[in-house]
Amino acid sequence: MCGILATLGNYRYKEIPKALIERGRDAQGIYEDDFAQLIQTRLEITKCNVELPYQQDIYTLLFNGEIYNYKDFGSNEWEAIINAFKDGRIDDLDGQYAIIIYNKQTHNLHYYIDEFNIHTLYYDEIDGNKFISSNLRSLPRIEFNKSQLRGYGNVAKQRVL
To answer: Consecutive 10-residue runs of the chain (161 residues): their mean pLDDT?
Structure first.
């Protein structure tokens, strides 16, 4: 089980939200630049020697779930996701997952969920800042109320922020 959260804009979390830590106490990491902040927590069911968030070339990856056919794309799930993304084959991944990929050159967030919506992603926009998270409670509490929620879940096809 993992918690993933990404923001585009100037909003920055000062610490990892408790709602994400509850979803993954064993490992955590933050990536940020002038355009985005990405946070991931992980509960280790099996040993995983991947630094969070995972980075490869110009991409930073947040991932929650399991990819059953990862060996068709790489040596581990993280590498497989980036390789499938670069090859335009994300839809060929078989599993249950929520994925957020940040392109450090274009400053776009690409996000995906499995076709059965087992791992949901929540999206919101507040004061020009865009948020996407696996946990609704990790969205900013002070400015956030349910009437402001723009959309959630069911983003099986590619979406870009």
So the answer is: 90 86 74 96 70 93 94 95 96 94 95 87 86 85 48 45 57
The residue among 68, 158, 66 whose CA lies nearest residue 112 is: 158
Provide the 10 A C-beta neighbour count for residue 106: 11
Tell me the sheet residues that pair with 45. none
Distance of CA 83 to the CA centre of its chain: 16
Dist CA 13 CA 39 (whole Å): 9
Looking from the CA of 26 toward its CB, the CA atoms found within 13 Å total 12
Structure tokens at 80: 């497989």
Kindly report the backbone phi and psi dihedral angles of residue 97, in degrees, each rounded to the nearest multiple of 5, phi listed first: -165, 160
pLDDT at site 144: 47
Q: Which helix (H) or strand (E) holds 101?
A: strand 95-103
Q: Whole-prediction pTM value? A: 0.85
Strand 159-160: give its sheet, edge to edge.
54-56, 59-67, 95-103, 108-113, 159-160
- Which domains are seen in the chain, by residue range? 2-160 (3.60.20.10)
